């Protein structure tokens, strides 16, 4: 996250990430935009987590996932990426059973 902060300050308008859909640019983040979004997410995470906690990221592919991932880094929590469940699909919930 130190490199991200450095680039947000010193290369703020440089493009950091671009999201493509079918080979066409859909959206992008500059380092400054990404840093701003990630820091906002980190503030919220710090209010509801403890350093080292795991945070499940249920995002479709895109720039919002990247912002959430960097938000986890800023907050000191472990990002656990997963695809969100698809609509109209059933899923099995696994729980550990006790005696």
Write the layout of secondary structure elements.
Elements: H1 2-10, E1 15-21, E2 24-30, H2 31-48, E3 54-58, H3 63-75, E4 78-82
Parallel strand pairs: 3-4
Antiparallel strand pairs: 1-2
Question: What's this model, at a glance?
Answer:
The protein has three helices and four strands, in the order αββαβαβ. The protein has helices at residues 2-10, 31-48, 63-75, and strands at 15-21, 24-30, 54-58, 78-82.
Q: What does the model show?
A:
This protein has 99 residues and is of the alpha+beta class. The protein contains three helices and four strands, in the order H-E-E-H-E-H-E. It has a two-stranded antiparallel sheet with strand order 1-2. Helix 1 crosses helix 2 and helix 2 (31-48) packs across helix 3 (63-75). The longest helix is centred in the middle third of the chain and has 18 residues, at 31-48.
């Amino acid at each position: 996250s130190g490199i991200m902060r450095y680039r947000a300050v010193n290369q703020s308008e440089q493009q950091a990430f671009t999201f493509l859909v079918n080979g066409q640019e859909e959206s992008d983040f500059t380092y400054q935009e990404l840093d701003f979004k990630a820091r906002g997410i980190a503030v919220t995470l710090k209010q509801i987590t403890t350093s080292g906690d795991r945070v499940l990221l249920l995002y479709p592919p895109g720039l919002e996932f990247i912002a959430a991932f960097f938000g986890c880094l800023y907050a000191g929590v472990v990002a656990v990426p997963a695809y969100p469940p698809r609509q109209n699909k059933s899923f099995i919930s696994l729980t550990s059973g006790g005696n």
